[in-house]
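Before going further, learn to read the protein records used in this course. The integers have meaning only within a learned vocabulary of local backbone shapes. To see the layout at work, look at the sequence and tokens printed below.
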Amino acid sequence: MNETTLKVEGMTCNHCKAAVEGALTELDGVESAIVSLQEHRVDVIHNDKISVKAMIEAIEEQGYDVNA
């Protein structure tokens, strides 16, 4: 398993947290996603099947900006 940390701008509440975590955990290859609202980041545990690009796109589809 790999761990990737992505900086996510625009998350302010538990709804934001749930949207980002849900979008990521629906992706094939993502084991878990844990958002830190205070640090504006998400830590993703995943295998090699999923690309960072795909994770970023899933977050951006929810309306948030990502800085890899």
Observations:
- DSSP finds two helices and four strands in the chain.
- The first strand starts at residue 2 and ends at 9.
